[in-house]
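Feature request, filed as a ticket because there's no other form

It would be nice if the structure record came with a short human-readable summary line next to the tokens. Right now we just get the raw output. Example of a typical job, pasted below so the devs can see what we mean:
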Amino acid sequence: MFEITVHLNATSNTPLYLQIYQYFKQEIQSGRIEEETKLPSKRKLARHLEVSQLTVESAYDQLKAEGYIQSQPRKGLFVQKVEYDVIPDQNAPQFDTTESPQISQKMKYDFHHGKIDLDHFPHKTWRKISIDCLNDKEHLLNGDPQGEFHLRKEISMYLFQSRGVQCSPNQIVIGAGTQYLVGILCMLMNKDSIVAIEDPGFHRTKHALETHGISIDPIPLDEEGIDIERLKHSSANIAYVTPSHQFPTGIVMPISRRLELLKWAEKTGGYIIEDDYDGEFRYKGKPIPSLQGIDASENVIYFGTFSKSLIPSARISYMILPEKLLNQYHQTMSINKQTVPRLYQDILCQFMKDGYWERHLNKMRTVYRSKHKTLIAAIHQELGKRVTVIGDQSGLHILLEVHNNMSEEELIKAAEKHNVNVYPTSIYYEKKENHSSPLLLLGFGGLSETEIKKGIIQLKKALF
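Raw output as currently delivered:
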């Protein structure tokens, strides 16, 4: 396979398949990829870029549709001769598409919290549904700016059954990633709004709020989640929380704290933004209903995503607005276009409608429960009482408090020397005084059980 140096940005609002498509289009137009060049197979390119085959297939389909490449039976995909009405400017600036050293540096055992298990993704089923949808030309056109109604209907039924969320399809807004939807929500807020965020909390959410001119007030956590007393004494009129699996601490907010939060919102006339992060995967105790499902005053705005439970590259997330915000949403967002391709929405809708989504989710719960069990057992066996595990009730990551007097930076560098990537938590704190001791963030979704065991053994060598 010839050198592919495309830099994919997983946090961009541009879907990964479009980034791949744009890379090849630019390379073909500039002549850097010449006529009759054979492109790598979907499988090889997907493995090389660490994305799903569907992502590569979607990029190739777009290139074929525009005439840049052609499929030759039993031979593969080849670059076609393209006649340009406008010759590309040879003096135009050339963009660096090589990966930075920091990004391209790969460790053998990478405990990244954003990675998921792709080995159990139902490729054949997804591919079949994709082909069926591609055969209907309507799926290639622009769709509903709010998201396809039939997908919103499937989501509303799924959320009612699994999370107790009560909403109509009309309350659901689909978008490319949670941060994008936070941006939409900011447009509905008064500019003098103050949003209480969990400290520590997800830094990209904070960035999205501040980018849109919204003031934030970091509220520390206690053992049950956001400190309700500190919240009551703050100036915030909106609270952004992750009650199902607080990021990064892993705290699961108990029902008593959820009810306190709802009382706060009702008393102040404020809103709660419930980000149901990692809500699908729970390993201990009974499921706790969502805040939205037990809210009688329509003060909860609910966020969810398919990134962790399905495939991150699809970037299909959703927001559920209270009825009283719908008119404002339609007036404010009337000229906006949908950011998730209609084709992806239709594929997911059929996937859910035919029962494949529920089956896949049940399978992944079993897979991740087994990986979680393997990780905890390996930590206890190899590291013992020299570490403390935090936040292991649900989700796809845990925190590790290491008792060896090393700083966070020293812990991470020591692990790197033994080919292990673990991650800091200090970056998620807004107020450094809330960050007392170094904690390491270990995700396990993207590793096999064998890799988890070997990775913890290497971590033991690095830290002790």
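Something like this underneath would help us a lot:
The chain has 15 helices and 16 strands.
The longest strand covers residues 215-222.
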